[in-house]
Write a structure and sequence with these properties.
single chain; alpha+beta; Butyryl-Coa Dehydrogenase, subunit A, domain 1; two-stranded antiparallel sheet; 40% helix; globular
């Protein structure tokens, strides 16, 4: 980024032109967009807003462009978020794929896994959930009994899960 103020003004102008007015108010729970293959959008504006932001990589602004992000620096992302706040723009997409799985894949996934999953997460085409609990454990992760053994070229997981968030 050569000039932060120019970047900010460009982002602000783009958001002003493209963010639907209906997407400039706080979202109720019913208006949140989680994405997924069977996503039901609360409105056409919400769908359009997600598509526009995903096209720019701004649903996951700091992810590399190769994986569906915009490749923004931390400073550029801060300015994007500042511009969105100034105009009251909603986040076009929320969910565990953005906050949990995506960052884990970026850090630990193979290139092939990243290419397969991250762009689809960024566009809201797939939805992820988390499941950490099992019978008798509740949310107490220290009580988990599930175990994983390395068996040559694969893993053998022995245990049971009984709870999933956003599943």
């Amino acid at each position: 980024m050569s000039n932060p103020e120019t970047f900010y003004q460009d982002v602000l102008a783009w958001l002003e032109e493209h963010c639907p007015q209906s997407q400039r108010t706080p979202a109720s729970r019913e208006e949140l967009v989680y994405g997924g293959k069977k996503c039901v959008y609360p409105s056409q504006d919400a769908k359009t807003w997600l598509e526009l932001m995903a096209d720019r990589g701004w649903t996951v602004p700091t992810w590399p462009q190769e994986y569906g992000g915009a490749g923004l620096s931390a400073e550029e992302n801060r300015l994007l978020q500042k511009a969105m706040r100034k105009l009251g723009c909603r986040s076009p997409l929320i969910g565990h794929g953005l906050w949990m799985l995506g960052p884990a894949l970026l850090e630990y996934g193979t290139h092939e896994q990243k290419l397969q999953h991250l762009p689809r997460i960024a566009r809201g085409e797939i939805r992820w959930c988390q499941g950490y609990s099992e019978p008798g454990a509740g949310s107490d992760l220290a009580s988990l009994r599930c175990r994983c053994e390395v068996k040559g070229d694969h893993f053998l997981v022995d245990g049971q899960k009984s709870w999933t968030t956003d599943g």
